Amino acid sequence: MIYNTIHWQGAAQQIGAGALLAVYTVVRNAGVEPEPRKFRNKSEVHMNQKEMNELRRRFRPDKSAISRIYGCYVNSSREVVSYLDESLGRMPQEEAEKYLGLLKKVLSGTLGKNLIDIVFSTQQVVDSDEHRMLMSLRDSGLKDSELRNSFYQKVIDTLDMGDSNYLILLAHDAYDVPHRGGDGEVQPDSSEQVFSYFVCCVCPVKNGKLELGYCPGENEFHNCAPSQIVAPPELGFLFPAFDSRTANIYNALAYARKADELHQEFLDAVFHTEPPMSAGEQRDAFQTALSQALDGACNFAVIQGVHEQLTERIEQHRQSKDPEPLTVTVKEVGDILRSCGVNEAQTAAFCDSCGQQFGEGAALSPANLIDSRRFEIKTGDITLSLPPDRSYLVETQMIDGRKYLLIPTDGALEINGLPVD
What we know:
By secondary structure, the protein is α+β, with helices and mostly antiparallel strands. About 35% of the residues lie in helices and about 25% in strands. The protein is built from 13 helices and 20 strands. Strands 1, 2, 3, 4, 5, 8, 9 and 12 form an eight-stranded antiparallel sheet that branches. It has a two-stranded antiparallel ribbon with strand order 6-7. Strands 10-11 form a two-stranded antiparallel sheet. The longest helix is centred in the first third of the chain and has 22 residues, at about 10-30. The chain is globular and about 75 Å long.
């Protein structure tokens, strides 16, 4: 039977979910289960920074093919206040740029931190309500008002925005993807495909602050305030993903303004996939694995060494300008622990714990495991914060039975700007 040689993801991208359903049905009827979707490595799964930047440049009135902006304004009681259906071309340029700026924010932040890869299973792509709705929204160019309203209602029924009013924005774009030559240079007049996608963002709507303003009719100054102001997006997504500069209907890219608050209720309602761990959850899981596995070996020198080596990798990756997100394996972190003097049994215990927390073979983002911008030390009374590249200056030492933090002062010493001896 030749059907079991079909590459399901490739088939979905080339012939679409509807045609894939027909193939899937033939295979099922023949008694052959389709091959489950396998874990793919990072170069296959994630959009990289170059692809992100390429799409971000689209969000200008003279660059995008976005013709209309759709939206739904919702109050804190989950009631629809009004719907939005506006022609972008008929707006004043400043207003159009504001809308595009809000939508562009969904493609901002750090991959793997604010921007989370959402992965659909083969079964979802073949036959699921959530994927069918996303595909229908895209294929209709968002022009189906009944479909839009169904999507709005799904968001309204599940999204928790506290006491805030909010605006759901939608926009569809068709990007004539220029060919990229062997030298990596884009050839603007040579296109191989059109990338059809849409972007959704959810923006809090806040009351304006009172300010003293001039009232021309009265020739006086009085308190005045804009009644409602649209804030930058709290969350949103891109569908489908732009992987390897082509549509990947197996993936979406979710955005969260706060990396520790992914709004799992929204992700579950829209995508029905296993919710990813937020950056904060990853950091907590990593620290728990370290403290439990190392036990008595979780000392200042070891944690200092782990922080220094991960920070060094982050800095080297930044300087290399590699568009792919930086990741490390649990085994690599284990090697770092060994280099810091942790014994084999404790290193193995750490690797086992990480396997349980993150899954076997997981690729971890160092930026989610540590704070690479600072090295912070806390005691019961003080907090000491240092640049990471100066953490080596601090050491601990027992003196007369008490633990001390020691910092050499070879140069000038100041207190609140005052030089002291």
